[in-house]
Design goal:
Helix 5 (about 130-145) crosses helix 12. It contains 12 helices and 13 strands. It has 3 domains: about 5-90, Nucleic acid-binding proteins (OB fold (Dihydrolipoamide Acetyltransferase, E2P), Beta Barrel); about 100-260, Rossmann fold (3-Layer(aba) Sandwich), CATH 3.40.50.300; about 275-345, Probable gtpase engc, domain 3 (Ribonucleotide Reductase Protein R1, domain 1, Orthogonal Bundle), CATH 1.10.40. It has a 6-stranded mixed sheet with strand order 10-9-8-11-13-12, with helices on both faces. Strands 1-2-3-5-4 form a 5-stranded mixed beta barrel. A two-stranded antiparallel sheet has the order 6-7. Helix content is about 35%, strand content about 20%. With about 350 residues, the chain is of the alpha/beta class. The chain binds guanosine-5'-triphosphate, magnesium ion and zinc ion (ZN). Zinc ion (ZN) binds near residues 289, 294 and 303.
């Protein structure tokens, strides 16, 4: 690569990204990666030093939605000041992938989780958190973000071998292509296979409920307890999240991993391909429905319902599919409505301003 330091390359910067930067921008700015997101600031790194950064005013004013703000993992153009102790972010570069979710509650808004992730680890603990329907929810989000999912089943030390095999079979029965890795932070089983999976230069992300052992895993991969987990922070009230912000961590192996706070509620926002990919066997079945616009809720000649009746498709999986389809079309609709309202408001402002200006002129 031209002009790009070895450090940036190790950090995941590549030709695809370089092509997105104009020569003028390369002269004017430095390239850096967002390694942590704070309330109103960011930590960015060029692979050598981590620096606190803020957004340039123009970026804030022109931002139309949360997507326009940097997320952890993003590549940005920045200027460094005060002997490289402070930086201003001018632009967020194109993203290879983006993980986002609908924010909890009725409001139709979304939140960025991470950008430029190659592989997302969906973590569920074998002892209490494992749930196929929740897993499907995460899969929809990850597939929608065009990211490869891998399922990690934590706390394998708390179950016997048979129970672990049964749970893995349950997943493989409906999603045979999905990679599933059981592991334990406690007795370290499975950690070696995990380390083998993680490649240098790629960025991974840990997703899953609070308390499943995401941060403990990172500490294990680092070989020391660098980050706060539930046990090392006894003062915290029970039920609180141990991890409070998203950050990207570099491992000695050269792989990078993003830790995220556990999610209580996982709403998906306008999911299309994510749903299709996660429920691919339902999509295949639907091709055989009598009506091409079949909604699979009671139509004559519905192949999906037929499969449920024959026991070829589990009723729970079918219901979860319907539920998520409904949610996503609802979210999509209200989002469009919201946009329409925003546009009308924009027009109103324009008319008022015009009126004001023409008054000034007279
Ligand atoms: N038995 C057992 N306990 C574990 C394992 N991994 C983590 N724990 C415990 O589970 C608790 C939660 O671990 P964390 O790593 O803080 O969980 P987290 O997923 O990062 O949680 P949030 O940051 O709140 O999202 C801690 O008390 C850990 O010691 C494991 O493999 N086996
Ligand atoms: Mg944590
Ligand atoms: Zn149908």
């Amino acid at each position: 690569m031209n002009n790009i330091s070895n450090n940036l390359e190790k950090f995941g910067f590549d030709k695809w990204l370089l092509e997105k930067v104009t020569p003028e921008s390369l002269e004017q700015f430095d390239i850096a990666r967002v390694v942590a997101v704070h309330k109103d600031s960011y930590t960015i790194s060029n692979g050598e030093v981590d620096v606190l950064a803020e957004l340039v005013g123009k970026l804030i004013f022109s931002a139309a939605s949360p997507v326009d703000y940097p997320a952890v993992g993003d590549w940005v153009l920045a200027n460094y000041y005060d002997g490289n102790t402070f930086a201003i972010i001018h632009e967020v570069l194109s993203r290879k992938s983006l993980l986002k979710r609908k924010t909890p509650g009725k409001k139709v808004d979304f939140q960025l989780i991470a950008a430029n992730i190659d592989v997302a680890f969906i973590v569920q603990s074998l002892n209490e958190n494992f749930n196929l329907r929740r897993l499907e929810r995460y899969l929809v989000m990850v597939n929608e973000g065009k990211i490869q999912p891998i399922v990690l089943l934590s706390k394998s030390d708390l179950l016997d071998h048979e129970d672990i095999t049964r749970i893995m079979d349950d997943i493989q029965k409906i999603m045979p292509d999905l990679q599933v890795v059981p592991f334990s932070n406690e007795n370290e089983s499975g950690l070696d296979s995990l380390k083998m999976i993680m490649q240098s230069g790629l960025t991974y992300c840990l997703l899953g409920s609070s308390g499943v052992g995401k941060t403990t895993l990172i500490n294990n991969l680092l070989g020391e307890s660098v980050y706060k987990t539930k046990t090392t922070s006894r003062k915290e009230s029970k039920g609180r999240h141990a991890t409070t912000h998203r950050q990207l961590i570099r491992l000695d192996s050269g792989a990078m991993i993003v830790d995220t706070p556990g999610m209580r509620e996982l709403g998906n926002f306008s999911v299309g391909t994510g749903l299709d990919e996660t429920f691919s066997e339902i999509i295949t079945l639907a091709e055989k429905c009598h009506f091409s616009d079949c909604t699979h809720v009671g139509e004559k000649g519905c192949a999906v319902l037929g499969a449920v009746e024959k026991g070829q498709l589990s009723a729970e999986r079918y219901q979860n599919y319907l539920k998520m389809t409904k949610e996503s079309s609802y979210n999509e609709m209200s989002y469009l409505e919201k946009r329409k309202k925003d546009k009308q408001f924009g027009k109103l402002i324009k008319t008022v301003m015009k009126h004001k200006n023409s008054q000034k002129g007279t």
